[in-house]
Amino acid sequence: MAHACNTRLQRGLAASLHAAAGGAFALVLLLAEPAAAQRIENSVAVFAALDKVTAKISRLEVPLNQTATFGALKVTPRVCYTRAPTEPPKTTTFVEVEEVQLDGKEKKIFSGWMFADSPGLNAVEHPVFDVWLTDCSHPRIAAQRQPPQGPAPSTVPDPQQQPDPDFPRRRRVPR
């Protein structure tokens, strides 16, 4: 009987502590400002390129909106972002890669975001060449994240808009 009473008392105490901690946690969340790392825009994207036939790795430093050629590939970075050295590293670029075919025509084989910390996530799939982002250089402007001025954004997503690489994607947890 005493054991059952102690167990009930312990459960009640644990529930009270849990409720108090939850309330304190909610208060901390309400008072805390969101931590947003400052994104730095760069004017040069740095890639590593592998020729699988010769096993030669080359370093490509490509200015934004200019094209570098590696074998039959043409690499054109559009933006390249990094973070301050005091922040956790997150280097991203939006890049377009085209293949020059034997008949001289160009075929787009990749268009999207590359992440230096996850080179296999969005990789160029080609039987002879591999290209992946390693770094960005020549910082231009530190882009401050500020709320947009003007009317509230619409809830309908714009299909032309590029995704924000700093926005975390939700993952569905299996139950």
The low-confidence runs, each spanning 5 or more residues with pLDDT under 50, are 23-33, 142-148
- Strand pairing plus helix content: what structural class? alpha+beta
Strand content: 35-45%
The N- to C-terminal Cα distance equals: 38 Å
The number of helices is 1
Q: Average pLDDT across residues?
A: 76
Overview of the molecule:
By secondary structure, the chain is an alpha+beta fold. Helix content is 17%, strand content 39%. Strands 1, 2, 3, 4, 5, 6 and 7 form a seven-stranded antiparallel beta sheet that branches. Strand 1 (39-51) and strand 2 (56-63) form a beta hairpin. The protein is globular and about 50 Å long. Residues 23-33 and 142-148 have low confidence and may be disordered.
What would a concise description of this structure say?
With 175 residues, the protein is an alpha+beta fold. The protein has one helix at 2-31; strands at 39-51, 56-63, 68-70, 73-83, 92-100, 106-115, 129-143. Strands 1, 2, 3, 4, 5, 6 and 7 form a 7-stranded antiparallel beta sheet that branches.
